[in-house]
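WARN no homologs supplied; continuing
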Amino acid sequence: MKRHLISAADLTRDDAVLILDTAEEMARVADRPIKKLPTLRGRTVVNLFFEDSTRTRISFEAAAKRLSADVINFSAKGSSVSKGESLKDTALTLEAMGADAVVIRHHASGAPYRLANSGWIDGAVVNAGDGTHEHPTQALLDAFTMRRRLVGRDAGIGQDLSGRRITIVGDVLHSRVARSNVHLLTTLGAEVTLVAPPTLVPVGVESWPCEVSYDLDAVLPKSDAVMMLRVQRERMNAAFFPTEREYSRRYGLDGDRMAKMPEHAVVMHPGPMNRGMEITAAVADSDRCTAVEQVANGVSTRMAVLYLLLGGSEPAVTTNNARTEENK
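OK structure emitted
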């Protein structure tokens, strides 16, 4: 792996499979009475969040703590950022405090790249979502969930998603999750189709390694996984569709549409959901929906990313001696 994780496009197939396999090992830790490894003891991970987040911030915090790292949570609200401090000065402050890794979520696309390539900090930089650009760890946890469901928990080790057909539906224009998933899933061998209203398809999408359709009903019968995206109304400054009811009628997933999917196919959602808009409550609460699994898998996947970036050559899973030391 590279020193930073900024974009899903930076990952090779071998990089991605290594992360997924390592996440599988990390997931086994969650089944233990003591859910901690000493791997990153003495390291400091800073969660630098310039945007509100619940799942991602808590997931990274849990991941770092399970690896025994020291965690500093930095929120832009109530900090010097709200007084006008620049990203550079914030970064220099973190460097002075000895941050080994900075997990950054920022409203500006490209902010994590700037931080990683500026020379302001020596630690690893992990992109936890930047503007409408990318969210690579979300794509990794999505791929981890798909591999478990479609290939199998044990059979999936060392495997990619070759031949699997993944459909991503909804507000692609504003979705960093969609961008990262298209890159990563294609790298893992999957065939990706985007389904959205024409107004919510990004300019230049023809250069993306995927297909585009405007007919959800035509795509569902041949999908192994269907990922429903939240309509990001907070990023919309114009009318991208006539009404919410019209959007749901054409692009929402309800029970009748789910019945058109193959029996083995799963429904995914990165959260938070707009129930009743892009997905009905009946579908969201069904056994085929992996939304809660994705949250749990997010901790294991982010543990894998932090371990591979910071863990060096130490084993991912502790030996009996290490466990004895940990329990003293």
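The CA atoms of residues 8 and 136 lie 5 Å apart.
OK
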